[in-house]
Amino acid sequence: MKAIAGVLSIALLGGCNVGPKYARPAVTMPGWFKEGVPATYGAVPPGTWQPAQPQDTMLKGKWWEVFGEPELNGLEEQLDINNQNIALYFQNFMAARAQVGVARAGYYPTVSVNPGYTNSGAGNTAATAAIGGGAGPGGSGPTVTNVFALPIEASWAPDLWDRVRNTVRQYQYAAQVSAADLENERLTEQAALATYYFELRGQDSLQDVYDHTIVADKQALEYTRAQAQTGVGPEQAVAQAEVTLENAEATGIGIATNRALYEHAMATLIGQPASGFAMPVRVLTTSVPAIPVGIPSQLLQRRPDIAAAERTLAQANALIGVEKAAYYPSLNLAASGGLQSSSLGTLFSLPALFWSLGVSASETIFDGGLRGSTVDQYTAMYRADVAAYRQTVLTAFQQVEDYVASLRIQSQQIARQAVAVKSAQRYLDIAMAQYQTGLGPYLNVITAQTILLGDQQTLVTLQVSEMTAAVQLVQALGGGWDVRQLPDSSDVTSKEAADRAARGPVDKRQ
Q1: d(CA 343, CA 469)
Q2: 395 to 125, 164, 190, 493: CA distances (angstroms)
Q3: Cα–Cα distance, 122 to 145 (Å, whole number)
Q4: Tens of pLDDT, residues 307-335
Q5: Where are the alpha helices (DSSP H) in 230-295?
Q6: Average pLDDT in the 434-451 region?
Q7: CA-based angle 307:308:310, to the nearest 5?
Q8: Mapping DSSP to helix (H, G, I), strand (E, B) and coil, where does residue 83 land?
Q9: Is residue 26 predicted with pLDDT exceeding 70?
Q10: Pairing status of strand 353-362 against strand 143-156
Q11: Residue 61 pLDDT more than 90?
């Protein structure tokens, strides 16, 4: 007993962590975003988009509200509740969360109970042989034996080298990775819905352009017909006007295709059948808001994909510790005891008591290099995860720079293109006036109509691109998420942590 107690004391007090200590790897980080520096906007034309100032004004939970679109706000609320991809990632998080509980079970002993009853009998000859040739009990007749048993067994493998602890850490980090993946998927779906919304509104604007063009082309056709009927204008002008109108009508009809596709995609994102979902027609009138960009170091806290990559590193580090524990001996403590009697009446008595205690240790002496190769494998996987983490950070910096530059340049393009549309409209007015007075051919009118329509299409395309670039910038900035919303490793199995993951990002303005 003293020896077993000594072994138990060593098991409880002598364990140590043989795994490597984890530290987040360093990344090369600039002090600011080149495209977001306020001085960059000092020489740009008036009206050019620029980030919100001051830079400590950050996005909050319901980031889509910065666009001031009530319809979009309502759709995003439905998406958070009904999107099936988000539901899938949430259940993946719940499964990862449950695995932590599975790993934690390794801290505790295993106890089992196996009550039983045995009734056995033997004839006189068998009973006599069983007792060495003498007469059976009573001298004759069969022998009947009853055995009542209530055995209890327990075994425990102390975590001497933190194999269990590192396994628990591995699954805790895996659950945090899953929670970050859930938030990244949520942000991806939210951004996709906003993008489709502005694309659909762009199609409505394009349809409006063609509707006005068709009205103007019909008026021009009626005028050329009237001119031809009075002998003032040639039939050639009528044919040219007809072709122009028919082309505009054909293209205008085709716009409905893209609009329908965007509408169907939005229905799927909010968890509704496409057949029962419809969006009212409304042209794009939203202006791009001033979005706070902040500084590069904040991306490490605000991008869920960066958080997932960093937690993956911590998980890989814990796995190295699990595999290094295989180099050291394992200890197993076993105990059994219980009650056993031939009579149910005496089962719960001191004479029926039995017990045993034991301890065993095992150590692998030769494994052909298995443990060393396994540790090398997981070390290489950790280093690969380091590279993946750093690449994720670099990609995040690139995306923010890309979308800030896109917004700045596109805002200038839109301003120029709006002027071009006005000039094209003036050109058309002059060409039409010259045709009506007989100073110019109708071909000049067709040329002016084509230029105006092309400029108007380009303007709508640029406006849609600007809005989608704004959505992509918000996504690149993390959408108002913060790494502090990840469940802490100490409470990753708690109900509160699961509830936080289910609710998604919290709007700190509320």
Answers
A1: 84
A2: 88, 36, 20, 32
A3: 9
A4: 999 999 999 999 999 999 989 999 999 99
A5: 235-269
A6: 91
A7: 65
A8: coil
A9: yes
A10: unpaired
A11: no
Angle (deg, nearest 10), helices 163-229 and 304-324: 150
pLDDT at position 343: 83
pLDDT at 4 over 60: no
State the DSSP H helix or E strand holding residue 362, giving kind and residue range, or none if neither.
Answer: strand 353-362
Q: Which phi and psi angles does 99 have, rounded to 5°? A: -65, -30
- Least Cα distance to 24 among 312, 235, 251, 230 occurs for 312
Whole-prediction pTM: 0.86
How many angstroms separate the CA atoms of 104 and 126, rounded? 53
Rg (CA), the chain: 39
Identity of the residue numbered 131: I
335 forms beta bridges with 154, 357
Q: How many of the other CB atoms lie within 10 Å of CB of 87?
A: 14
Tens digits of residue pLDDT in 262-304:
999 999 999 999 999 999 999 999 999 999 888 898 889 999 9
The structure tokens listed for 10 are 């060593």
8 Å CB contact between 337 and 152: yes
Residue 90 CB partners (closer than 8 Å, separation 6+): 182, 501, 502
Average the pLDDT over each of 34-43, 124-133, 162-171 and give the range with the smallest value. 124-133
Question: Do the Cβ atoms of 53 and 419 come closer than 8 Å?
Answer: no
Average pLDDT of the chain, as a whole number: 87
- Stretch 45-68: mean pLDDT, rounded? 82
Buried b (16+ CB within 10 A) or exposed e, 290-308: ebbbbebebbbebbbbbbb
- The answer, yes or no, to whether residue 505 has pLDDT greater than 50, is no
Task: Name the residue among 22, 170, 39 with its Cα closest to residue 100.
Answer: 170
Query: What's the pLDDT at 129?
Result: 54
- Take residue 102 and report the two structure tokens written for it: 């599975």
Tell me phi and psi for residue 194, to 5 degrees. Answer: -65, -40
Longest CA pairwise span in the chain (Å): 144
Tokens 């805002």 -> residue: 411
Instruction: Answer yes or no: is pLDDT of 501 > 60.
Output: no
Which residue carries 């030769």 as its tokens? 366
Tokens 């039939």 belong to residue: 235
